[in-house]
Amino acid sequence: MDRRLLDAAISGDASGILELASRQPSLLFETTPQGNTCFHIASIHGNEGFCKDILALSKSQSLLLLGTINADGETPLIAAVTRSRAAFASVLLRWCNDRQLSEAILKQDKHGCNALHHAIRRGYRTLALELIETEPALSKAVNKRDESPMFIAGMRNFMDVFDKLLEVPDSAHSGACGYNVLHAAVRNGNSGIVKRVMETRPWLVKQENELLKTPVHQAAIEDKVDVLTVLLEHNRSLGYQISTDGLPLLWVAAYWGHVGVARELLKHCPDAPYSTADGSTCLHIAVQRGNIEFVGFVLESQQLQHLVNMANDSGDTALHLADKIPDDSNKDMLIAPSAPPAMDSRLLEAATTGDAKTMQNLAMHDTGVLLGTTPQGNTCLHIACIHGHERLCKDALALNKSLLTTVNLQGETPLLTAVISGRVSLAYFLLECCHDEKLREAILKQDDRGCNALHHAILCGHRELALKLIEAETDLSHAVNKYGESAMFMAAMRNYADVFEKLLEVPGSAHGGARCYNALHAAVRNGNSAIAKRIMETRPGLAKEKTNDYDTPGGTPLPLLAAFRGHVGVAQELLKYCPDAPFCLADGWTCLHEAVNKEHMDFVEFVLSSPELRKLINMQDSNGETPLHRVVRKCNPKMVAALLHHHDVDVTMQNTEGAIANWKLFNASHHAKTLNWNEVSMLMLKADPEDATSLLNLHKEAKDKVKESQRNDIKSLTQTYTGNTSLVAILIATITFAAAFTLPGGYSTDPGNEGLPILSRKYAFQAFLICDTLAMCSSLAVAFICVIAKWEDLEFLLYYRSFTKKLMWFAYVATTTAFSTGLYTVLAPHLLWLAITVCVLTSLLPILTKLLGEWPILKLRFRLGRTFKSELLDMV
Questions:
Q1: Is there a contact between 329 and 322 (Cβ–Cβ < 8 Å)?
Q2: pTM, full prediction
Q3: Could you report the per-residue pLDDT of 495-522, keeping only the tens digit for each?
Q4: Which residues are within 8 A (CB) of 856 and not within 5 positions of it... i.e. 6 or more apart?
Q5: What is the Cα–Cα distance from 216 to 232, expressed in whole angstroms?
Q6: d(Cα 96, Cα 80) in Å, to the nearest integer?
């Protein structure tokens, strides 16, 4: 395409091209590499005026330009729609229609989409309606994915466009993957479109998509109850549909757990099919999928209750399948006897408020009314126990003793409920009733967590009640809950010595806890020596029982456990009674290795000072490493010094790789810039001077490694240093610049000296000006060096850092000097002592700053003395 034509089409100004086009008509049909004519380009940019001017040149040319397609198969009309030029697309549509260019309007692009597809897809509803009105045949086209305009309108919920398309005879209604417009309406839950389709094209409801699902099946899968209602009201027989893969609608609803769908199906089709060809019913699949709500619906449904005993082709009933699933919820529902009657609302209110008279009136003619339950399985006795109405409980039991043995959905008897609710006096009463009625099972009953009344009494802190329960029924002490916790373990965990003693008197009473803990573990945890002593006297075997917390082969020696936590007192006590207690694992890992690894300095010092453990200093683990190897790698100078000061230490011992302790510094080279790393290297150099060459080589390698990492991160380092330095430099420059114009003493107003500083003849004032100027100049120089210091070069950065550091120190000293001389100038004539004090303090400030800044290094120098090697600190 001629560049002038392209520019004109983009800008919309055809004035410069009309004369050229009139002389050379073929110019208008030149294209871009994408096959776009000037009309396409103008359509993309929405330049209506350009197109109008071009069309005015020649009728024959206009016909050709409107129908030309580009490399994507787009006419100018499609190009305008796809580029969101809806208004111009409407103009192009009128031009094509006026010139009877139906083919141009109907043209489909390389994806098979026509202008109507694109208009609906992009939400141009007005344009879509205009396209249908102008050329109804657009509605019959489908793209390469079999999507029709009607299907797209259904997917977008465009009701007006959908209705317009539905008026066109034989308009296409298909969608991708075998879907149709009814599938789309069902997906969106659009009952209006569903109703219109069922009135005009009812056969679509039986069409399956590639997943073998009809619109009715889709409604069941997606829980579209409102849509399903419309479909079934139009044709009740749809409820009996079975898909090609043999799935009835009830089975589909059960698979997804959609109770509302199943209820609506049974409402319209009471005998709707419920099983697949292999005999798997909707109850079978609901149990397998764990859809408890659907299982409950089936069991409550008059039409489906018979499925509970129906077997599939493998001979399995729903109960058989439930038995194979770890969750017992479905199983409990299936094997439960017929549900007790629901509790009368008046009885519930009476039990809640403690109205015994109303309860008695209700039970006057039928005491069975007292057995009614809430949805949670609670009887009136449970409710009264929760609220602590003892009078009502007594009256209810006088009418019906069987209430004592009832359990709710949590497996709680009224006795358990009373204990859990903290109704201690009521629990005493119920315990007596159960004892008098010889209802031993009611006392021993455990809830769904395996806890009995004694467990809960101890958990809730009711110690007197716990003692009474043990006295009334000693077998309570034998039970453990689902977590393996016994009543004795709980009592020991809570330091209930009286309850513990009572339980200990019961032969065979359980003592276990969760994770294989026992009552002795609990006593040790709480530091309860009395309980621990009683257990050791009566059940000494508990001291040797292991928990699940440690799984070291061969067990973990006690000194090693003490070292793990750093408990020096424990280790001392162990050695007091067992001087030769085991101190290492089978692989040679000792308690000193452990203490070093966990950096427990007190424990390390204890081991080094203990005669029984001094041999550990040179013991090697499975890798041949001594504690010194480990501590050097940790870069802990205090521990290294402690080990090196021990007389028995051997710094030349090698591990299995032939490395001595010194060489472990290389493994810790990422700490090479820290004082700890350098102090450790100096300590090791002093301890093993024969290996000085290796240490110096190691130091060089570490330095090279640090340099390399800094080279890789030079940009960040440069930004950090220049940013921090420039900030301080600008701050000093600002202070000194401001000080130069707010001179001490002010300015003179005397004739002939107007504007001159009053104190200009004093030497201190002159020193102030010189120092202030030097400070400002040096700080400004640093600030501007920071601006130009953008080279990503490490050597330059090191030079820059050294140079700017000196300048900043000079600026700092000059600033403090300017401050002191300025104050001296003002104060000296009247308060000389104060002026001198200010000068002394400010002159000491740089010295103090230097001392504080280098204090860690100075401490290291004092601590190491002649061992200190300043050259080792030069780590870039």
A1: no
A2: 0.48
A3: 999 999 999 999 999 999 998 899 999 9
A4: 675
A5: 9
A6: 13
